[in-house]
């Protein structure tokens, strides 16, 4: 397995961040969690049971419980209460956001934009619980540095149906991929309009999106990949270097180098870079986090052109393919919680910003042959 070299004299934190993350993974619905003994991570057997997957009603109940038991002011609200013009899903479900922290910069954390990718919800609930209850120096620093806007279930309708998309309620029953619905000629689904307007209210400093992917083997070794690190506008590609003078091209790579270094210490986590088609980097502008980086202005709601860097995590296995591996539920959530907490604290301490962005190329990946864009493949020699 290819490894990333560690820079010398790296400053280490003294608090047990990993221990806090491990504790968080026992929440929020531990009573229904399967045993983790002899866990297969992920499962290639197509035997996924969705019985323990968090439902929309589970989400609402857990958010209310976290709010009530919070020591540090978790505020759970709906977009209807916030006052966005569109405030519910296509099927009329309330869209929930939880906020916590008093810092001057906002951070946007979202999960389950694809309904068949469930562990983003549980991972964000676990992190939200720690932000609301953990008084350790690291979590205190996070609350003092940032105000977090946590969206554990971006796509409640798709989540309830165990499908990737949402379904339009305009008589067509057309399925819309919400992660391709921000951009020119887009915003077809209610959820897209609602969360876009909320994003223009928040103006986050950066964003993280949690996904699942299919089963994947590492290039060159064939080892099972458990987590892929992704940037939706490819570093060094056709688009990202031209945004903010290349600042996001640098920072997004630094963010993932930091996550890779910290999570590489855990033997159960094997990471690579997210690619499609075997050797293509994605450079898709219609995705939510891509539109954030591009500073997209829809209906004049973003006239100042606010933009922010954004990255995503891809846990291997999903419910539609039957490859999620129910026994690996705890490990799947755990690696997301670790990735998020290491990234967030690294950003707050400035460790991320000191990383060598060029080391992104050392994270395992297939040789890049091109860029998958909205309009087709652009060769790497563009």
TrEMBL record:
Keyword terms: Glycoprotein, Hydrolase, Protease, Secreted, Signal, Virulence
Signal peptide location: 1-37
Active site: 314 (proton donor/acceptor)
PROSITE patterns assigned to the protein according to its UniProt record, in alphabetical order: PEPTIDASE_M14, TAT
One Pfam family per UniProt: Peptidase_M14
Keyword Glycoprotein: yes
Protein name: Peptidase M14 domain-containing protein
Organism expressing this protein natively: Agromyces ramosus
